[in-house]
Write a structure and sequence with these properties.
Protein name: EF-hand domain-containing protein
GO molecular function: calcium ion binding
Pfam families: EF-hand_6
Strand order of the largest sheet: 1-2
CATH class of the largest domain: Mainly Alpha
Radius of gyration: 19 Å
CATH superfamily of the largest domain: EF-hand
Largest sheet: 2 strands, antiparallel
CATH topology of the largest domain: Recoverin, domain 1
Organism: Mola mola (Ocean sunfish)
Helix content: 55-70%
Shape: globular
InterPro entries: EF-hand-dom_pair, EF_Hand_1_Ca_BS, EF_hand_dom, Myosin_RLC
């Protein structure tokens, strides 16, 4: 009888989360699937605490505490399969334009709205505020998103790349 009960619970959770796929466009679901696959480090179809730790390590952050990981895992009611993963992001992204959200974060450092930030300023903020980056992490970021000849970061293009996965210039060719 124990297995029948859990079968019903599974059916209920599947029902409530199946409509999560209708919240996203097919291309977004594909991007989430790629992100999920990257985070599912041991490829078992579920993201667990070990996968989270390995994902942070792959991103260069080796000092994530157990408490931080537990806090993240608490956001889900159980094992995080792809449907749950999508539902969690759906909740967080509901009513937000990711590109606009990220742009607004950068605009705090660009009150004149030029669309660029000095590389030195970014390095300073990243290494001295909140989740302090190491110099190596900042340099890695600049490798992926190089500064222009004047030493500035075009954050509008960076936001576009983060949310669309390609450079605006490349797309318009």
């Amino acid at each position: 009888s124990g297995s029948r009960k859990s079968g019903t619970a599974l059916a209920k959770s599947a029902e409530s989360s199946s409509n999560v796929f209708s919240m996203f466009e097919q291309s977004q679901i594909q991007e989430f699937k790629e992100a999920f696959t990257i985070m599912d480090q041991n490829r078992d179809g579920v993201i667990d605490k070990g996968d989270l730790r390995d994902t942070f390590a792959a991103l260069g952050r080796l000092n994530v505490s157990n408490d931080e990981l537990d806090e993240m895992m608490k956001e889900a009611s159980g094992p995080i399969n792809f449907t749950i993963f999508l539902a969690m992001f759906g909740e967080k992204l509901k009513g937000t334009d990711p590109e606009e959200t990220i742009l607004n974060a950068f605009k705090i450092f660009d009150p004149e709205g030029k669309g660029i930030l000095r590389g030195d300023d970014i390095k300073y903020y990243l290494m001295s505020q909140a989740d302090r980056f190491t110099e190596e992490e900042v340099n890695q970021m600049f490798t992926n998103f190089p500064l222009d000849v004047a030493g500035n970061l075009d954050y509008k293009n960076l936001c576009y790349v983060i949310t669309h996965g390609e450079n605006k210039e490349q797309e318009q060719e």
